[in-house]
Hints:
Blueprint: E1 3-5, E2 10-12, E3 17-35, E4 47-48, E5 54-55, E6 58-59, E7 65-73, E8 83-89, E9 107-111, E10 117-122, E11 131-140, E12 143-153, H1 156-163, H2 169-184, H3 283-324, H4 334-374, E13 399-407, E14 410-420, E15 427-430, H5 437-440, H6 444-465, E16 471-476, H7 487-492, H8 502-526, E17 540-548, H9 554-566, E18 572-578, H10 591-596, E19 598-600, E20 605-609, E21 616-621, H11 630-646
Parallel strand pairs: 1-10, 15-18, 15-19, 16-17, 17-18
Antiparallel strand pairs: 2-12, 3-4, 3-7, 3-8, 3-9, 5-6, 6-7, 8-11, 9-10, 11-12, 13-14, 13-21, 20-21
Helix pairs in contact: 1-2, 3-4, 6-11, 8-9
Amino acid sequence: MTAELVRGQNHTLPQTRLEIRVSAGSPVVAGATLGDERGTVRGAEWIAHPASHRVPGLEVSRQAAADHRLAVDLDALPGEVHRVTVVLALPVGAGRPVSFGAVAAPFVAVTGLDGTEIATFTLTGLDTESAVSALELYRRQGAWKVRAVGQGYAAGLAGLFADQGVAEAAETAAAIQEAVASGLARSVTPPPRTTEGERVRHPAGPAAAGAQAPAPPVPEAQPAEPLGNPASARTEAPGGGPIDYAHPRRQTSAPPPPPPTAPPAAPGQPARPVAGDATGWSMDERLYNQIWGMFEDLARAVAAYRSAVDFAESRMDQELDRALSDPRNRIGGAGDRAREAARAKRDELTGRAREALERDLAQLAAESAVVEPALPAAYAGWDNPVWHAYRVPMEIPMALRLGDLRLGEAPDLRIPLLVRLPLERGIWIDSGRTASEAAASTTGDQLRGLAVETAVTLAARLLAVYPAGEFSVHVVDPAGSAAGQLSPLVGSGVLAGPPAAGAEGVASVLAHLTRRVDLVQMAIRAGAADALPPDLDTGEHLLIVNDFPHGFDDRAVTQLRYLADEGPSVGVHLLMVADREDARAYGPVLDPLWRSLLRITPVADDHLADPWVGHAWTYEPLRTPQGSRVLEQVLALVAEARRGGRR
Length: 647
């Protein structure tokens, strides 16, 4: 029976190999410290955190996430350790919550390796604290117990570590937050929650994905800003005006549930999937929420499978250690029989876990087969027939598809990667060499060419989903190295001007967009939208920068960082095509720039992480079908609509 602890209460642990699961309403950093008999942490080597995620007997997550699983083997801890303290902290950065009082109360569960809950604790009553000692496992008279702590620290991790006796508390806390910031740059931004915005779960579908290792419930949360969302600084000008960049259909009240569109399934049969099977105010919103639900279902199903496999392996190791510790089993056939029995049990457990995963994958595949053909153009791949019936829209959609995501356990199941519109952070298409198999089989010149092609197709999608004249694209190509790949944009006439070349061209475009950001920000702060110059285009703007940092001096680099930081809040967005190694000469001055951008790649690469369990997902960019002219046809329609709007 699960012990539901309150602050200060303890409970005996029946085993020494455990998992500690954390669920929060927004991404948090999860770590653990090892303490001696007095609870003192003797050094940084006794702290498990994202930059050093393993210490003897303990492993934690490598990044901030809404859900965590910490692995604990109390028998493997150093003999001097008498206490393990689980710590949670909020990642620092613009647009992120600064205290636990602003987010949902975290929920912590201590479980066995099979997912059985031993003790749970909900950390209520937190206010200004940004770090908290959630619970501690401690040794008393040879037995291990768990105690609910819930001690918060307004001074953050530095204050928590100082309280535990860490000599260089501030330096250690800063190093952890730096590692977390690098990890957050990999994370896919989750959609904001609504009070009733949960996906409708079918009883026999992916909701059963956690059967092997069920996730603890997430406490009710108020709607929160998405992770890394610079739009939190967006302010509508008093009285409206031409500079309101808030999405017109982003509602603050709970959306209605989806209408019943399919008869219930027969008893014992999985529910039939339906496109738009999620809450929302419109079909676009319901499809958006459904895709995110599929994304989360797949993440949790695979997490449950991996947890079950890890449990089976660790159980086999324990049984082998037990059997072979007896000298009598080291001779004759007893040892062989023990090995065979342990491996058979491992295979049985893994087989059952695989069967559960296959059932969930089959349900998700069936859902994907129904959802994909129903997607609107903004959510659809280039091979979807919806593009052949394309017409320039009258309003922007909720989101845009950037590519597809998949996991190794389900290579044929692809989840669309959707980002909200207007864009809330810039995008970096990494043209450098990565460790992926696809990159290894591609030359450096091919990677650079594919990176520009990816930027062109992404710019085309953005132009296609905005009403005519409400989105402008500027290109900076200092050396003119991407003339061939840019020809669809140049030839169709959809660019705001010819691609800028040379240092002078770079300076001119950056000055123009920087002036626009300055003027709109001043108008918003002063409540004087009508005072903007008549020649100022208040629509959305995208700046494509190719071959950075070629053609950029220090002033241009400073302006680029300014546009990346301040531009999204007033409708100026950045799309970088660059190899980070080429910019090493600038040193750490550009690190905040890279971290502020969503990194994607021109070939398949497993660098993006989900916000729930932190899987490394393989990202695949969208490509037009071989021989298809869909891109040119769409751009021609966009250009025609823009010319018609200027008449």
